[in-house]
Amino acid sequence: MPAAAPATPVWLVATPGVLLLDLAAMAEPLRLANKFAGAKTFELQMAGPAGAIQSSLPVQLAGLGELPGSLGGSRENPAWVVLSGTTSDVPASQRNAAEGATVDWLKTVVAPALSARTARLWTVCSGALLAARAGLLNGRQCTTHHELVDQLKKNHPAAEVQENRIFVIDGPVATSAGITAGIDLALAAIGERCGQAVASQVARDMVVYWRRAGGDPQLSPLLDHRNHLHPAVHRAQDAILADPTADWDVENMAAAAHVSSRHLRRLFQDNAGLNPLAYVHSVRVGLAKQALARGASVEEAASQAGFGSAQQMRRAWKGMESSLPRAAKAAAKRG
Q1: Which domain holds residue 37?
Q2: Phi, psi angles (nearest 5°) of residue 54
Q3: pTM of the prediction?
Q4: Backbone phi, psi, residue 321, to 5°
Q5: Are residues 138 and 273 in the same domain?
Q6: N or C: which terminus of the chain carries fewer CB neighbours within 10 A?
């Protein structure tokens, strides 16, 4: 029996004034991912510049570990570092030294690990400002809370700040907008690490669904048409997401949903807003777009997404997208 894959070390870093909703926005989805993945995928650890800090609410966080000298990641399984936002309501006398120590740690421990590809960085809200102070956003596309975008641009001109974005992923560094945008970032992270079916289960358990601002990349089309609560439709969608390249005719989907084919057609239309086969095509077109963005040829993207041929993919694509696959590939190269 093969050994279980090692859990990803996740360092949830808290500094004085930490916004508890920022912290939970990343931490809770990762905790739930462990549940739905069927194995401990994430090793969650809390750390900070002090053992106890004042949070954004009238409660202290205590029992924090020290900022580690080694993150414990590898190229095959990079460690994750999560920086949450803070409130300025906490006096500067409590924040300045702690933030300075955290920035120093980011420079001396996290930056080399990012360069070595043994770590990834995720920031929520004003956590991007700490990352920028450590030089970790230089030359990278990034975002932050809309009220802090101008500050980030002014103080850190080397950062390529993007406005009106829910989150931005640039290599090993990911940044998100304010507060609950951390949930969207966490779902993207889970989809990448555990698979999109697990991300979908986490989203359903939290009763949240991914949002996308105008320019956001389609990081997971696999949560489209999931904003409903019907268990049979979700069962069919979960089965498709778990193996999107399988032979998904209506009969196989109905078997996965434990309903008749006729009933499934009606349920899909009433709850997901499209018929079952159109849903399969939407998932596969989304997967093909991801493959093209990673550099795959049109033929490779069609195969990876589960289409029988590039021609079949083009037919499905034409019904859902205004541009052609090759145009999407060219746009991905430019972006």
Answers
A1: 8-206
A2: -80, 135
A3: 0.76
A4: -125, 150
A5: no
A6: N
